[in-house]
Amino acid sequence: MKASVLQPDVARYLLDHCTPPDRLLEELAAETLAATGDSAGMQISPDQGRFLTMITQLVAPDVAVEVGTFTGYSSICIARGLSGGRLHCFDVSEEWTSIARRHWERAGLTDRVTLTLGPAADTLAAFDQPVDLAFLDADKQGYPVYYELLVERLRPGGLLMVDNTLWSGRVTDPADETPTTVSIREFNDLVAADPRVTTVLLPLADGLTMIRKN
Ligand SMILES: C[S@@+](CC[C@H](N)C(=O)[O-])C[C@H]1O[C@@H](n2cnc3c(N)ncnc32)[C@H](O)[C@@H]1O
User: Fold this and answer.
1) ipTM exceeds 0.95, yes or no
2) Which of 6, 153, 169, 188 has the CB geometry, 3.0–4.6 Å to 131, for a possible disulfide?
3) What start and end residues bound the annotated signal peptide (predicted)?
């Protein structure tokens, strides 16, 4: 789980006042840590997971898309919020998503989730269904490309959520010119200036941008 941009005691307080994850998600987080080591930090936080389930319940999408599945935490949270729709997951890693597949099975979600492996720029370009809800959490330098492909496919009123848009607060540090920070900063500027959408950047976890297609 990436560090929150909030002070640690405030971040802890928020987590303590959010419905906690169930045993399956706890076990998935533990297995992810054991199997992937430092990469486990890519997993979304428990409060973000609750938020994704709640938003999915509110939007009630027929077609939901996730770009960046890793070992499955966020996909389980989204799929659990579905009421009849389907979640289409995109990732490049057979190894990491094999853990996701096992946990979709355990969670009884296999009939609601489809996984496509390959670079998301290609697999999204080939995806031809109108999208109601999307969650973007893949390689940060690819965000502008994935954003364009997703906005084109979002139906009017559809919602795109983008993770890590505060990048531990580094986007506000003008001295930070590392490639990922610069990419996210440019991405945030691009979204804020896009007349096709209405957007709010929430300070949830590492920053979650809510983007509604007008
Ligand atoms: C931050 S992790 C996703 C975390 C996940 N949402 C969760 O909650 O556990 C990013 C994922 O993006 C995937 N990824 C990286 N580059 C990609 C690409 N070009 N196309 C598709 N997926 C990619 C990685 O394999 C990794 O699983």
Assistant:
1) yes
2) 153
3) none
Q: Can you list the alpha helix ranges (DSSP code H) found in the chain?
A: 8-16, 23-36, 46-59, 73-81, 94-106, 120-125, 143-153, 179-192
Which of 157, 2, 152, 5 is closest to 68 using CA atoms? 2
Is the minimum distance from the CB of 138 to ligand 1 under 6 angstroms?
yes
Please report which helix (H) or strand (E) contains residue 119, including its range: none
Q: How many domains does the chain have?
A: 1
**CATH number for the domain including 151?**
3.40.50.150
Residue closest by Cα to atom 16 of ligand 1:
139
pTM of the predicted model over 0.80: yes
Supply the range of the domain harboring residue 194.
8-213
Cβ count within 10 A of residue 9: 8
CB of 120 closer than 6 A to ligand 1? yes
* Residue-wise pLDDT tens digits, 5-24: 788 899 899 999 999 999 99
User: Cα torsion for 168, 124, 104, 33, to the nearest 10°?
Assistant: -30
Tell me whether strands 86-91 and 63-67 are parallel, antiparallel or unpaired: parallel
Q: Is the CB of 45 under 6 A from ligand 1?
A: no
Query: Per the domain annotation, does 76 fall within a domain?
Result: yes
Structural domain contains residue 1: no
